[in-house]
Amino acid sequence: MSVPIVRTVRELRAEVSAWRRQGFRVGVVPTMGALHEGHLSLVRTALGRADRVIVTLFVNPKQFNNAADLAAYPRTEEADAGKLAPLGAHMLYAPDVAEMYPDGFSTTVSVSGVSEGLCGAFRPGHFDGMATVVTKLFLQTGSDLAFFGEKDLQQLHVVRRLARDLDIPIEIVACPTVREEDGLALSSRNVRLSTEHRLIAPRLAKILFATAGRLTEGASIDETLLEARNAILEAGYQQVEYLELRANEDLAPLSKLDRPGRLLVAAWLGGVRLIDNVPVAPAR
Ligand code: PAF
Question: What is the pTM of this model?
Answer without folding.
Answer: 0.97
